[in-house]
Please model this.
Amino acid sequence: MLELNKVETFYGTIQALFGMSLRCEQGQVTTLIGRNGMGKTTTVSTIIGTLASRGGEIRFDGEVVTGKPAYEVAQLGIGLVPEGRQIFPNLSVRENLIATAANYSGSSDPWTLDKVLEFFPRLHERLDNQGNQLSGGEQQMLAIGRALMLNPRLLILDEATEGLAPLIRQEIWRRLEQLKESGLTILLIDKNIDEMAPIADRHFIIEKGQVAWEGDSDGLTGDAELKARYLGI
Model:
C-alpha cells in the first residue's frame, strides 16, 4: 500500500534521509524503529507531505505522491497520529473528533463519532471536556480517534505510547490489535519493542537516515546483538 524508494530529504542544506526505502503491505502492521535523531519523524513528515523530498519516490496504493501537498495526501486516505498528539487544546473532545471528519476510504461502515466513543469509552466520559483538560493517555486516545474519523486506508502513529503509564500503554496496544484485525494498514513508530512485536508483521530499523535492517518480529526479538547495536542507548 505504501512504498518509499530511495527517498532523500533535507532540512535546508542538511540532509536527513539518505536513500530511505520501506514498504507497508496492505492489512499489515509495519514498524519503523531506531534511536532518537535517526530520521523516523522525518520519514513520516516526508510521507505526509509536510517535508518535501529532493530525491526518490513515494507511492501510495500505486499512485505517486512525491511532492503532493499534505492536504492532498490526507485526502488519499493517510491518517496521522503525530508525535506529541497535537490535539486542539481549546476544543472539546467532541469538537476535536468532528472537526476534520471525512470518509476518505469510501467505507460502507465508516468511523463515526459514536463508533469512536464506543472504541474509546474514556472519551465518551470526557466528551465535553476541552483537550487540555485530558490526561496524556486520554489525549492519545483522542489523537487516534481523530485520525480514525478521517476513515483512512493507512494509519501512521508516531511514538504511539510515548510517556504513557503502563496500563494505558496496554490499552493502546489492544486497540491497535483490534484495528489490525479490522484490516487497517498501520505504520507504527514506538520504542516499546516487546509490546509492539506481537502485533507487528514487519520491522524496519533506521540508522542515520536509511534502513539498516529489515525483518520479522522473531528476527528482531531473538537477536540481542541487533537490538543492542541499533536500539540500545
Notes: The chain has one domain: 2-216.
